């Protein structure tokens, strides 16, 4: 209409607010802008915070690496996630992450030596969380054995003030060059050994990777 002033909805709201409060329109505008900014920040804190996630691992024949990639894919869905071999992570880089997944094969009923060394050298930041993942050629281990294997991760978390979030584990086929030695060590017949090889072949398989992803999703929250 000629001569009329066109306001958008926000302006009308501000002018109504100014009338109700009896205040100057410029001050009300400043309050309005600050209010909107506060709502934006609150929303960001409530649901929009993007975590920095590190998935790091040691792997000689690719089994632990396969699980690491699955966990990284899952973590990348809603976070900023990096996938790095353990040797590519400097101890001081660790502090820049909110959540760290650390992966190791089982070596003689222990975490691999480079993983244990890494855990002792961590330079932790604040409010960090960590979870482990382990692959092993044995079909499964009882809980008490897993508790013992994960002890170095738990101890590092306790010492450095990191929240420990648990550990995923699954089977990973033994590399062929070790078959003869392991069969001899455990004094297994050819038949028994053939059964074990059949059982471990193909692990970690798609189901193992899917389980690792589900586990990662749960601990990331
Ligand atoms: C030196 C050595 C020691 C191992 N000791 C064990 C063991 O104590 N228990 C077990 O279940 N698997 C053992 N394994 C098998 C590996 O843990 C398993 O194959 C793992 O998935 C290998 O992971 P990677 O391919 O990421 O290196 C051993 C393998 C190696 C090379």
Features:
221 residues, alpha/beta, Rossmann fold, 9 helices, binds flavin mononucleotide
Write the layout of secondary structure elements.
Elements: H1 9-21, H2 25-47, E1 52-57, H3 63-76, E2 80-85, E3 99-105, H4 113-121, E4 129-136, H5 143-149, H6 151-160, E5 163-171, H7 179-185, H8 190-200, H9 206-220
Parallel strand pairs: 1-2, 1-3, 3-4, 4-5
Describe this structure in words.
It is a single chain. The protein is about 50% helix and about 15% strand. Strand 1, helix 3 (about 65-75) and strand 2 form a beta-alpha-beta unit. With about 220 residues, the protein is α/β, with parallel strands linked by helices. Helix 1 packs across helix 2. The termini are far apart. A five-stranded parallel beta sheet has the order 2-1-3-4-5, with helices on both faces. It folds into two domains: about 10-45, no CATH class; about 50-220, Flavodoxin domain (Rossmann fold), CATH 3.40.50. The longest helix is centred in the first third of the chain and has 23 residues, at about 25-45. Flavin mononucleotide binds near residues 135, 137 and 173.
Question: Outline of this structure?
Answer:
It contains nine helices and five strands. It is α/β, with parallel strands linked by helices.
Q: What characterizes the major β-sheet?
A: 5 strands, parallel
What is the 3D form?
elongated
CA(first)-CA(last) distance: 55 Å
CATH topology of the largest domain: Rossmann fold
Number of domains in the coordinates?
2
Q: Spans with pLDDT under 50 lasting ≥5 residues?
A: 1-5
Give the H and E element order: HHEHEEHEHHEHHH
CATH architecture assignment name of the largest domain: 3-Layer(aba) Sandwich
Briefly note the structural class of the backbone.
alpha/beta
Bound molecules: flavin mononucleotide
Regarding quaternary structure, what we see is single chain
Percent helix, as a range, is: 40-55%
Q: Estimate what percentage of residues fall within beta strands.
A: 15-25%
Strands of the largest sheet, in order across it?
Answer: 2-1-3-4-5
What's the average pLDDT? 88
Q: Could you state the CATH homologous superfamily of the largest domain?
A: Flavodoxin domain
The CATH class assignment of the largest domain is Alpha Beta
Radius of gyration: 27 Å
Number of helices: 9
Find the count of extended strands (DSSP E, 2+ residues).
5
């Amino acid at each position: 209409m000629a001569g009329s002033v066109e306001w958008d909805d926000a302006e009308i709201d501000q002018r109504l607010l100014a009338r109700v409060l009896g205040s100057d329109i410029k001050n009300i505008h400043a309050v309005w802008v600050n209010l909107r900014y506060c709502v934006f920040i609150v929303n960001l804190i409530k649901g929009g915070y993007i975590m920095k996630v590190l998935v790091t691992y040691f792997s000689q024949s690719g089994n632990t690496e396969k699980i690491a990639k699955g966990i990284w894919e899952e973590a990348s869905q809603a976070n900023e996630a990096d996938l790095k071999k353990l040797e590519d992570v400097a101890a001081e880089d660790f502090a820049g992450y909110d959540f760290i997944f650390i992966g190791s094969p089982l070596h003689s009923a222990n975490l691999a030596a480079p993983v244990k060394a890494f855990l002792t050298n961590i330079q932790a930041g604040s409010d960090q969380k960590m979870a482990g993942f382990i692959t092993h050629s044995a079909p499964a281990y009882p809980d008490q054995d897993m508790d013992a294997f994960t002890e170095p991760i738990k101890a590092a978390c306790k010492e450095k003030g990191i929240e420990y979030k648990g550990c995923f584990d699954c089977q990973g086929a033994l590399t062929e060059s070790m078959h003869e030695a392991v069969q001899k060590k455990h004094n297994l017949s050819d038949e028994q050994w053939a059964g074990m090889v059949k059982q471990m072949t193909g692990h970690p398989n798609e189901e193992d990777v899917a389980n690792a992803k589900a586990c990662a999703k749960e601990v990331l929250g």
